[in-house]
Amino acid sequence: MSVWDELTGQSEAIAIFRAAAADSSLRDAPIGDSAMTHSWLITGPPGSGRSNLAYAFATALLSPPDPEGEEATRRQVAARTHPDLGVLSTEGVIIKMADVQKFVTTSYFSPSVSRYRVMVIEDADRMVERTSNVLLKALEEPPPRTVWILCAPSEADLLPTIRSRVRSVRLRVPDVAEVAELISRRDGVDLATATRAARESQSHIGMAHRLATNEEARRRRQLTLDIALGIHSVSDAVVAASKLLALAGEDAKAITEERDAEEREGALRSLGIEPGGTIPPALRAQLRTLEEDQKRRATRSLRDGIDRIMVDLQSLYRDILLLQLGVPSEPINLAIHSQLVSAAEATTAAATLGTMDAIATARKRIDGNVSPALALEAMLISAAR
Questions:
Q1: What residue numbers bound the domain in which 180 lies?
Q2: Is the pTM here over 0.85, yes or no?
Q3: Tens digits of per-residue pLDDT, 204-215?
Q4: Residue 291 burial by CB count (10 A; 0-12/13-18/19+): exposed, middle or buried?
Q5: Which single residue of 68, 156, 196, 227 has CA 20 to 30 Å from 185?
């Protein structure tokens, strides 16, 4: 199986990276005369497969020519344990400058077993300006066998000086059918369930996987829509805001709880401490650092959970608006079509459009660190009115 087989809907981008991976003249020809270059930027909407493509490209660059070596490299890249692969990602709101400085330092190491050293930065848009400037120096004078792969939603999320030193590859939103086929084939889900998950996730590959394989995630999404459709007054809106915030908290907890436990168990094992054993005072600082990282991740996960609720609500009112305007388009929330029709008949297109504007405003406010509870209340009160 090729490293490119688990990618979907990005044939043009895949062709670019396959050609680059096949080109071994990274430093034998001037940049621009070769399919390969030392720094790349993969952009595209959330769920389009940016990081999946980045790691497929990394695997192709790091793999030896024989099939067995390629399979071993694929496993190492998937586990993020390949000695010539550097990965910088964050579960926090921003990527810390100290992390970027340390990462840049490791980029100057020579490859140990492969032709290249590959440095991947997921969510490069989470770097503030002064942190980006640390990375800029490495991109301006890269080591001869180091390849940088940055991922971000759009080029505009990075400094112009960064953009001028990378080759950008833009991804598109995959079709629902393409995502459904991938989820069905990769995760062993029946095609009907995979198609519904792909449609309701709006072709977000990661969320489609979660909806297709996690019954609780499907239940929480359905409850989100039911709460929104049940708002008829200002008091309903206030109660609904509280319920949606609780749902986002449940979703965030479900995502982080299991991972936190595994990380703690692994940390204790690496320190030689048996489960349930006493932690020596000299080692407690290391565990406190892990716990602080997990708290930051929980904060980010809650914000992501709230944003997922906003996206689901946007899809709901988008479906209602199209019905009100008589646009012949398949609803995202096809499973509740009768409820969509009832909601469309109960209000006007202008009111629905106003609600969608309120959701967009709430997302901006939360991104600007406004209290999520207040932002949700204001948004839903606007919907009620």
A1: 176-213
A2: no
A3: 988 999 999 999
A4: middle
A5: 68
